[in-house]
């Protein structure tokens, strides 16, 4: 518990999942333990090598710990000076501007206006980015800005509503240009949350509608998907766009198919009630073989008893996906917490799912087993049942060191819940029906 974390772990925690998630598919870049002036200058000088732009963003500006060495304000000054010296519109210039934009939101209130300016410089130049072989840099900048805007970094800046919205429109314009050139990026831009964070999405929607109607712009799945995202509050338009995108849905990407049907279920639920949402999610299960966890929740909320029992039976099968079981159980327990008298059956179904999953003689993914145990242990702790907490949290067969940071985090969380249960005296145990 008291061991020293690797610097990139703190970078992950500070930068947020929205910024770090794309790196999860590959090993993170090597982070420095100390960012003194010499190190920062070296990284800035070699920003085009070894993903050093990400090292500066995530290792230096995002973690902002007292022992990082050079103060972040001074480090940002070094990057800005390098921008001024770089060849305008070169790949190096794009990389350094993206660092200025990312860092400006995180250093101080006085640097946030500079962050907006840096991002606008990038988003206004998609053609130059392609010419400079910097399209991935631009895609990542779009992704980072859209992920930053809904959070506190941008909102704490006075006047963020107007600047934030204006810059998001520029980001969307650049993104649509890249799509029109057949250059989709590797990042899933969180357009839904970004658009939700602006006061008036009309400008962004107008850009998207123009692109959808433009015969010169390829009518791709990604374009229609993006358009659906910006209409989150208009389920009728979302449904129309998703139906247009259906023939182009990638058949070799089950995760994308799961997203598609989940969003379709949300739109159909708004238009046609629970039956519409359930029908869309059932189609997802038939098409992709995934989505039973969400289907359980939709059936429970929609009072579809037959559908609920069929989905629970599917999750009780020996080959059921642990992640789906955990999704269903966690959702059912959330429903139970809304009213622990009216929704006892949700609690009972969740506990049964998790108990059967952990007791079965089957092959279990380590991370999903830890998640299941943590959900169950926390539920029993809330019910003040320490013996059951200890049983759920006992993982003698799992020995550190664990293979991933996520697994280690789950394991340590489980140990903390178990320690809390040990502090509950046996005579305090209360039986909750």
Description:
There is one protein chain. The chain has 433 residues and is mainly alpha-helical. Helix content is 67%, strand content 0%. It contains 24 helices and no strands. The two termini are 35 Å apart. The model is unreliable at 1-26 and 429-433 (pLDDT under 50).
- Which strand-content bin applies to the residues? under 5%
Order of helices and strands: HHHHHHHHHHHHHHHHHHHHHHHH
Taken from the alpha-carbon principal axes, the silhouette is globular
* Count, helices: 24
Uncertain ranges: 1-26, 429-433
Number of strands: 0
| Overall pLDDT score | 87
Helix content: 55-70%
Q: Termini, distance in Å?
A: 35 Å
Radius of gyration (CA) equals: 24 Å
Give the assembly state of these chains.
single chain
What structural class do helix, strand and pairing data support?
mainly alpha
Sheet with most strands = none
């Amino acid at each position: 518990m008291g061991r020293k974390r690797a610097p990139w772990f703190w970078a992950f925690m500070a930068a947020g999942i929205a910024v770090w998630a794309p790196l999860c598919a590959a090993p993170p870049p090597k982070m420095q333990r100390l960012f003194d002036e010499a190190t920062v200058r070296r990284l800035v000088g070699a920003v085009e090598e070894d993903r050093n732009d990400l090292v500066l963003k995530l290792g230096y500006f995002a973690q902002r710990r007292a022992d990082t060495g050079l103060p972040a304000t001074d480090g940002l000054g070094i990057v800005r000076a390098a921008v001024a010296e770089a060849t305008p519109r070169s790949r190096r210039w794009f990389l350094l501007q993206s660092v200025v934009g990312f860092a400006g939101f995180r250093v101080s209130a006085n640097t946030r206006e500079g962050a907006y300016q840096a991002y606008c410089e990038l988003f206004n130049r998609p053609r130059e980015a392609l010419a400079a072989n910097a399209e991935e840099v631009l895609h990542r900048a779009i992704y980072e800005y859209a992920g930053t805007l809904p959070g506190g970094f941008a909102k704490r800046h006075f006047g963020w509503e107007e600047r934030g919205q204006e810059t998001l429109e520029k980001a969307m314009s650049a993104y649509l240009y890249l799509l029109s050139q057949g250059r989709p990026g590797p990042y899933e831009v969180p357009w839904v949350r970004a658009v939700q964070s602006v006061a008036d999405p009309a400008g962004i929607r107008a850009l998207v509608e123009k692109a959808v109607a433009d015969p010169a712009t390829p009518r791709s799945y990604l374009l229609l998907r993006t358009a659906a995202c910006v209409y989150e509050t208009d389920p009728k338009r979302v449904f129309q766009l998703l139906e247009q995108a259906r023939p182009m849905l990638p058949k070799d990407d089950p995760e994308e198919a799961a997203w598609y049907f989940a969003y379709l279920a949300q739109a159909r639920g708004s238009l046609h009630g629970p039956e519409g949402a359930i029908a869309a999610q059932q189609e997802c299960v038939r098409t992709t073989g995934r989505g039973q966890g969400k289907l359980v929740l939709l059936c429970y909320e929609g009072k579809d008893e037959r559908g609920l029992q069929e989905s629970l039976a599917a999750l009780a099968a020996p080959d059921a996906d642990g992640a789906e079981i955990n999704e269903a159980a966690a959702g059912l327990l959330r429903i139970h917490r809304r009213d622990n008298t009216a929704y006892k059956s949700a609690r009972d179904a969740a506990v049964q799912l998790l108990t059967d999953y952990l007791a079965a003689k089957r092959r279990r993914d380590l991370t999903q087993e830890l998640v299941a145990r943590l959900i169950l242990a926390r539920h029993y702790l809330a019910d003040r049942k320490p013996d059951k907490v200890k049983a759920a949290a006992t993982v003698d067969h799992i020995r550190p060191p664990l293979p991933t940071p996520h697994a280690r985090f789950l394991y340590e969380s489980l140990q903390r819940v178990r320690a809390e249960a040990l502090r509950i005296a046996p005579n305090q145990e209360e039986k909750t029906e």
